Amino acid sequence: MANVMNRLAACADDAAIMTELRAILCGLAGTEGRRATLDEMAAFLTATEERWTLATQTLISDLSGEAHAQFELLDTLLAWATQETVDKNDTILETLILFFQVATMRLGDAGGVQRWLQWGDQVLAVVHQNAALMEEQKPQETEEKADEGIEGLRCNVVKIASLLMQLRDKLEEDDDATPDLKMVTFVWKVVVVLVL
């Protein structure tokens, strides 16, 4: 496959990047060097927060059951966003909530359970770390700025809590849901309470 970085860099705008990205992902099924290609794509997309956000939101909105390469790329994009060196601003946190939404919607369905649990754990860990960091910074910030940050965090936690309620209802209706799965989602609820 031609140099992925060059193909993406040659795109004139965001729409062209996403079109090229989809074309590359479609051509990845069963190819040699798949991991290297995905790593190149991730390196290009994580070069700027704007690219990461656009790619992540677009890939999540395009998800289908058989998009294995797409899921692998999303795994990598999520891992990038959860690094300590990445500034967790509102845009990144809101995008991370999309990962959590996919995880809660797909948990309990056939296949991919480990991926959804991992996504949920990673997002909750970031939200929890962000809350702790905001608590540390509170004395250094003006009251108005601190209030804005706390309000944004509360909004994200409310979204997560709402998704957990939906997941709880789904799992309670599913007689086949394993006790382990119910236990993990209980732990998630505890994390959300700690953040609040």
UniProtKB/TrEMBL annotation:
Highest taxon of source: Eukaryota
Name the record gives this protein: Uncharacterized protein
